[in-house]
Write a structure and sequence with these properties.
Layout lengths: L9 H12 L5 H8 L3 H13 L19 E9 L4 H9 L4 E6 L6 E7 L2 H12 L4 E8 L5
Antiparallel strand pairs: 1-3, 1-4, 2-3
Helix pairs in contact: 2-3
Amino acid sequence: MTLAKYIPDDLDRRIIGHLRADGRASLSKLSDALGVARGTVQNRLDRLIETGTLLGFTVRVREDYDEQTVHAVMMIEVIGKSTTQVIRKLRGLPEIYSLHTTNGNWDLVANIRAASLSDFDRVLREVRMIDGVANSETSLLLSSL
């Protein structure tokens, strides 16, 4: 039996929006900001987590915090029907910050964050060695505007 995908309503989206701005916001702070009871926020958060809508909470760091971090975008072409297998392998690389499907000549777009150029070089080699990766093109991100 397959469970239906949970579709967040307006309140859920507002909770997610507040958590994106402040992932450490308390239930009380969220309930005040949203004008709902604390228990309502708790129930909604529980459901968002149980359904996999919220995968977890993380820390956002200023872009200029660590100027040595190498940021890049990699476009990836996948052979045939191996997309699911390739995605699974890519998600196992901690330097892959985010991964997206896309249209056009490339099948996937990966945002890469590596601690150094040597780590970046290793990630490029690891991605290119994944069975099902036919081709890739990578661009370093030099400045944020």
